[in-house]
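Researcher: Next sequence.
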Amino acid sequence: MSQEPASIEQKTLRLNLDPSRYGTLAETGAGQEVARWFFRVGGAAGTVAKTMSAYDMKVSDAIYGPSSRYVSRERLEAMLEHEFSLLHKRLASSRGDSTAFFAFADTAAARSFSRPEDGLAWIGIRFQHQPQAEPSDIILHARLCDQESVLQQEALGILGVNLIYGACYLHQDPEALVTGFGDHLTRARFELDLVDVTGPAFAGVDRRGLNLHLVQRELSHAILFQNGGQPFEPGSVLYKKPVVVIRGTFRPILRVHLDMLAAATKQSRERSGPAADGIVMLAEISTQNVLDPTPYTQDDLLARIDTLSALDLPALVTDLAEFYRLEAYLSRYSKRALSFVVGAELLEQAFRDEYYENLDGGALEALGRLFKRWVRVVVYPSRRAHTDTLLTAENIDVSPRMRHLLQYLLESGQVEPLSDYREEHLSASAASVLKDLQSGGRSWEAQVPEAVTALIKERRLFGYPG
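Model: Next structure:
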């Protein structure tokens, strides 16, 4: 049986009684919930050099420098730099030989009367993993999901203690460090959608793997990768942007997938005009894909992220099985046009009750949850295997009781056929491409983008024999 994690009181008391740890706590936007734990358990003088809370913007700017946004990574890093430098300057000569210094900071926007929504927080720590060491950083972005402000503040306090404790005692085991962030919290209360680590305490650590671990340990529903396959805070990419998203295994990505994205984006621009400016194209990989029961590994996911990155295509790795759950996630960031581009065969499967056994209303309930007023499903034609039949949004095989619903969605424009397609790629099958690739064949190369083909051969991805 796994050992129950130490309580928040036990964690804080251990820190307070550890003479080798000493630091500053700076908190803005949701009270001083982290500092409260250190004073509550007793012995805080052994660990806390100073607590800080600068709420007035002019006062905050005078201390940390001006910032365009106060709940931002930029402001968090300014807080960490200022507080750690000041602490080290004042105390290094007197106790630096025996003390590992740290500066913890958070800047948050919790639920309030003027902001009745999930809280957001940037949280970080700059710390020495041993006395006189160069400092290392851990930076987190969190979503606070409680419905009451006081509960969001409480969750932030628990997360902050978990972060400080992990930095001090778990940095040598990065996966245990990440897992520990969620101690005594649930995903109903908070989500982490970014973890970044730098410095000598994390030499050789794969940041991308740590972020995937957030999904694996149910601390996050999704992690976004872009710009060379690096993890990014999703809001920085998706906020108030129109989005075209394609779901798939992408083992590997095919030319037809790029055709689908291009056709959907072109049609969205033609339909929306200037409102379509800034469209984000996104490839989503679900670890809970009901159509692909193949067990996934971290290396496999990283290979898929790398191949998507070779095409400058952002990758969103999620644990969201159903389309309506992915829609709910993306709609946190933007309620502008959201287009799911799917093949006609996948649309056909979306109308089947067997995929929605967890919903009392089956497919009807799932589709009702999916089709918000800003959501469209755009449908790329498919070729049925071993036939010449061109399958489209209009002629897919659905049950009689669903036929009228499909017709309504077509007439309302929420299911929209794509007329601009490339015939030469329609017959491509992801399963057959992967089989040919793994057996040492060559025909798969015609169906895979050149940049991805080169990367697969160079790194021997997806079981390529070389």
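Model: Residues 8-220 form a domain with the Maf protein fold (CATH 3.90.950.20). Residues 177 and 265 are 40 Å apart (CA to CA).
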